[in-house]
Amino acid sequence: MKTFNIALIPGDGIGPEVVAEGVKVLKAIEKLDSSISFTFTMFPWGCEYYIDNGKMMDDDGIDKLKTFDAIYLGAVGYPGVPDHISLWDLLLRIRKEFDQYVNLRPVTLLNQSLTPLKSKMEKDIDFLVIRENSEGEYAGAGERLFKGNQEEVVLQTGVFTRKGTERIIRYAYEEASKSNRTLTSISKGNALNYSMVFWDEVFDEIGKEYPDVKTYSYLVDAASLYFVTDPKKFEVVVTSNLFGDILTDLGAALTGGLGLATGANINPEKDFPSMFEPVHGSAPDIAGKGIANPIAAIWSVSQMLDFFGEKEWGEAVLSCIKDMLKETMQLTPDLGGSASTGEVGDRFVELLNEYADTEIFTN
């Protein structure tokens, strides 16, 4: 039996509500497949923990997480705790300490009714954004000089190392090559005359190693336009930390909203655990009401299963999400339904059991 040890950080707001439904799905798979076992250890870190303890996680939190195969995160952020503290002292700290330098954000339309773009179908919006996740504009380098004075100067430095830039671009080329898809680089070389010119040069250099991959390059402003007007242009996209953060939220808007947006923070070498999360944030305005959409959290379970090498189960979860989206009244209010968060999870498990009965999954 393969046992996967998962650290749960439900976090803030609706995080605990949606993580509970993702765990429900994993436990259902465990019942259906006797060759797989999951263990869960919950860590109560987040903004409430910060208010009580003056820190977002235990002092030895990173050491505690090192032993796990994966981290399942719900959400980070809540009123009363400054965003830069909640982000930098938990989410970004984990990403950086565990060198999770690949961020995978699928922009995939699972049901035509969900896109605000008229006449666009599932086949028109189906691409993967590979975002550099460890440096760039989010390196945390900078300075505030003469704070509070008229002469105050604020410097925020983007850090682009050759190692960091090469490895994310090479990862993207590998993904495009093995999946026989095009690769698009998104940068801003005309204005950012050091960092993005360097990015473009590295993209071209590594491209010589992959003559089979057809490539495109767009400035980020043009790419934003094409995301909306012609999303079919994109198959695999690689971009920097900041641009990837912004563009994937735009991608989420094209495919049904943040309630369907998932993300994987990957350490490809598996020297450290990788982290999987819905990216909708903590949504404090609806926390505790039982109406949070858990589908993004469940989609991140699919990404986790893919990472574990359980691709059949990863595909099964994604297939059930597609089926679930056809049952409008079984969905949460943000998608036009009347179901609660828990009811969505329960119905999803029913669909997963039905799917397993028709496929060769049960042992």
TrEMBL record:
The keyword Metal-binding applies. The lineage of its organism: Bacteria, Bacillati, Bacillota, Bacilli, Bacillales. Belongs to the isocitrate and isopropylmalate dehydrogenases family. Keywords: Manganese, Metal-binding, NAD, Oxidoreductase. Its EC number is 1.1.1.83. PANTHER family: D-MALATE DEHYDROGENASE [DECARBOXYLATING]. It catalyses: (R)-malate + NAD(+) = pyruvate + CO2 + NADH. The gene is ycsA. Its cofactor is Mg(2+); Mn(2+). One of its GO terms (molecular function) is NAD binding. The keyword NAD applies. InterPro entries: ICDH/IPMDH, IsoCit/isopropylmalate_DH_CS, IsoPropMal-DH-like_dom, TTC_DH. This is D-malate dehydrogenase (decarboxylating). Residues 5-348 form the Isopropylmalate dehydrogenase-like domain.
